[in-house]
Amino acid sequence: MAKVNNPQQTVLRVRNNYQRRELEDRLAQRLSAMDVADELDLIQGALSKLGLD
Amino acid sequence: MRARAVVAICAAASYLAAQNLRPQPRNGIPLESHSHLLESCARTAAITGDKDSANALADAIIGVPHRFTIQPDIASLIKPHAVNAELSFWQGLHRGVDEADIVSLINAFADRFGLPEYVKTSASQVRILRMEGFLVNPIFLGRGMAQEKREVGQQIKSTMSPLQAIHVIQTLVDQKFLIRPIRSLLQNGTR
Q1: How far apart are the first and last CA of chain A?
Q2: What is the spatial distance between Cα A5 and Cα A11, in angstroms, rounded to a whole number?
Q3: pLDDT digit string (tens) for B112-146?
């Protein structure tokens, strides 16, 4: 007998996949728009927040 | 002859089933090996406490596959800071990284890049991840985790070593992309 998927789980899975793709696209856009100075600034900021500078 | 063929088919089927159960390799290295390497390096670092062992541990952490693996040029910028801070931390000269620092970093990152609200994190999410990570890498993540003065509900320190923090951050980012439970927790109002 074929396994019947739970419709709620299917909706959740589709929504999660959509959210993940949206997040990846958005992050990729923002990162590609950064120049080297911005990247260095980001890294320095991260190190500073963690107390590693 | 027929029995021999049946045995051969059964052996092939069990081999294929075993292959499916194993973690799939990434970058040619099985995931379990990264974990073992991390534990082995953490054990050596805990015993010797020297710079070479801290460097090896940092390399092991950077080598663990993640959704966003640290690029070599960025790793070369971060690693010296992280290794020096790690050594200072175990000598009692560095305050360590608090769970709140990680929350602040991730949330600032989400704000800066205009990412969705669910990317933001909280101290409870970081704590859950640390505890789950502890089950996988007890030597690495368990070192220095217990409070000296234990009271009910406060057995775990909120601070961790710099290299532990880098590993937790990378794992947290993975969770935001890949795994549902944290989002379920979010929906349940744990955040």
Answers
A1: 61
A2: 10
A3: 888 888 888 999 999 999 999 999 999 999 999 98
- Whether the CB-CB separation of B126 and B191 falls below 8 Å is answered with no
Question: How near does any CA of chain B get to the CA of A7, in Å?
Answer: 16
**Residues of B with CB below 8 A from A52's CB?**
78, 81-82, 85, 97, 162
Select from A27, A43, A47 the Cβ nearest to the Cβ of B113: A27
* pLDDT tens, position by position, A1-53: 566 678 887 887 787 778 778 777 888 888 788 888 888 888 888 899 888 88
Q: Per DSSP, what are the bridge partners of residue B98?
A: B159
Spans of all domains in chain B? 27-187
What is each CA distance from B67 to A20, B64, B177, in whole angstroms?
A: 11, 10, 8
